[in-house]
Specification:
Blueprint lengths: L1 H10 L7 H27 L1 H6 L2 H28 L10 H30 L24 H16 L3 H38 L1
Helix pairs in contact: 2-4, 2-7, 4-7, 5-6, 6-7
Protein name: Phosphatidylethanolamine N-methyltransferase
GO molecular function: phosphatidyl-N-methylethanolamine N-methyltransferase activity; phosphatidylethanolamine N-methyltransferase activity
GO cellular component, one term: endoplasmic reticulum membrane
Length: 204
């Protein structure tokens, strides 16, 4: 009962019909949809590799597009928070520094994931036929699966707390949902790519 009341109070601070909020939701949902559709299309047709002359060039192009879209998403997220009221009880030093700490942890996971995977490993290189020799199990993958996604979610959560923003918290939930759906699609597909690789190696 308390949780329901808290959720009702939280939603009372958020105008979900606000244009900025809707744009933020759409940008959050679009990003994983875009890169999954394009990557699977590339895996099926090798069209991007042909256009750019090599799988690596095509992967770097897609990775750059994803980075730009992520910047747009973050901008829309921030603007949506600014356009909606703060939760006064959370607008204090304790909440701000808690959010800062959560964002720092999220940033650690994102950066360490990138360093462990490299550019092509991070930006769907396996869909371009650029396969890693073996599964990465070092930090942060030794701590949790998909640390890039959950690190990014933590950054948005921390950013929302730093701004004492109920709208930000709701948008963070949308980020988490979009990544959860992305993992459900990407996980089995990527595993199948590497299963075929191992099968090919054994057949030789």
């Amino acid at each position: 009962q308390v949780d329901v009341a808290a959720m009702v109070q939280l939603f009372g601070y958020v105008d979900v019909t606000d244009t900025g909020f809707i744009v933020a939701v759409l940008s959050i949902a679009f990003n994983p949809f875009f890169w999954n559709v394009v990557a699977r299309w590339e895996h099926k047709t090798r069209a991007l590799s042909q256009v750019f002359g090599s799988p690596h060039a095509a992967c770097y192009c897609l990775g750059t597009a994803i980075l730009v879209l992520n910047c747009v998403r973050s901008h829309c997220f921030t603007e949506a928070m600014k356009s909606q009221p703060k939760l006064e009880g959370w607008d204090c030093h304790w909440t701000y520094y808690s959010g800062l700490a959560i964002s720092a942890v999220g940033t650690l996971f994102v950066i360490s994931s990138f360093l462990a995977l490299g550019f092509t490993g991070t930006f769907l290189g396996d869909y371009f036929g650029i396969l890693m020799e073996e599964k990465v199990t070092s930090f942060p993958f030794s701590v949790l699966d998909n640390p890039m996604y959950w690190g990014s979610t933590a950054i948005y959560l921390g950013w929302s707390l730093m701004h004492a923003s109920p709208a930000g918290l709701l948008l963070t939930a949308v980020v988490a949902i979009s990544y959860t759906i992305a993992v459900l699609y990407e996980g089995p597909f990527t595993e199948e790519i590497y299963r075929r690789k191992q099968k090919g190696v054994k057949s030789k």
